[in-house]
Amino acid sequence: MPWGSRAGGGAGSGAEDWGGPVAGRGEQRVGLLNGVAAYGLWGLVPLFWPLVDSAGAVEILAHRMVWSLLLVVVALLVVRRWAWAGALLRQPGRLVLVTLAAALISVNWGVYIWAVNSDHVVEASLGYFINPLVTIALGVLLLKERLRPAQWVAVGTGFVAVVTLTFGYGQPPWISLCLAFSFGAYGLVKKKVALSGLESLAAETTIQFLPALAYLLWLGARGEGTFTSQGTGHAVLLVSTGLVTAVPLVCFGASAIRVPLSTLGLLQYLTPVLQFVLGVLYFHEEMPPERWAGFALVWVALAVLSWDALRTARRNRAKALRLRAEADGMDGTARTDGVAERDGAAEVGGALGADGAAEVDGASAQRGQAV
């Protein structure tokens, strides 16, 4: 469970960062601990899946879907958050998007479990290293977003890295690409759905539940299921797949409402770093020179991307504060002179709304959508 008991910091604490207004320092510490816990647990997940390897990737995936839903239902009963479900059922368009999100995350989970249990931990980690680059590329292709020069450099460097790794592996890194594109597309769909992490997981696993349960019952009827045939320990581990799914997500949710977006953006790299280290040092997967070269290019691309994001966030925050100060100054002058300079104030206020507040509040909105 996440550290800390409160969901936000005191207003007016002055503890802001480049991603916009956030909680006070104590709450930020709690958020940072939860963020490290979330991304750290996701990074250490490769140690868990081999423990249930005898079940096979598809059976493990089905158990993950079933037990995740049961755990999430218990959590929703505790927090008493059900109003979203009725609203969702009355919106067929959002239901279609939730179904698409469930399909995408099913592919992502299944490929990842198979990759880890088939000795492809390093290649799986690459998928999450390049995910930010793929997300940007999808934004350009599907949403017609315009990139800053540094983002073009990062995406171009990432493309060169994939080409380099293609030569290193003797084929395109399909596992990495599948993980990155499925998760990138999942993120885009989730933005349209706009549910919190707990609610989103509940909706998606509800859709997954019946097919997953039917598959497990079919396996059991054929005598091929492992849940009841390999001892209590194995059954407990399969049930624990629900915890493996839900606990990091809860920690992430507790972090996202407390720390700046810029901090979360940097913390996310903890997951693939840990996976990469496990793949090389614990699972002893091969890393010939051309693979090192490809990974090095990916890391350069991510460094450029992170630098650009932090610089842009800092500029946007400074601009928002400057425009807000100018607007406050105009209000003061108007009160002193008794003259309502409506045209000038409206112009500055409009600039603040479009360029300043939107930049700062947009970061908070993205954090909310992410959880």
TrEMBL record:
Coiled coil: none annotated. Residues 1-13 have a biased composition (Gly residues). Residues 1-20 are annotated as: Disordered. Residues 31-166, 177-306 form the EamA domain. Pfam families: EamA. InterPro entries: EamA_dom, EmrE-like, RarD. The chain crosses the membrane at residues 32-52, 64-83, 95-114, 126-143, 150-167, 173-189, 201-221, 233-254, 266-285, 291-310. It is found in: Cell membrane. GO terms for cellular component: plasma membrane. Its main location: membrane. The keyword Cell membrane applies. Keywords: Cell membrane, Membrane, Transmembrane, Transmembrane helix, Transport. It is a multi-pass membrane protein. Belongs to the EamA transporter family. PANTHER family: ACYL-MALONYL CONDENSING ENZYME-RELATED, SOLUTE CARRIER FAMILY 35 MEMBER G2-RELATED. This is Protein RarD. It comes from Streptomyces sulfonofaciens.
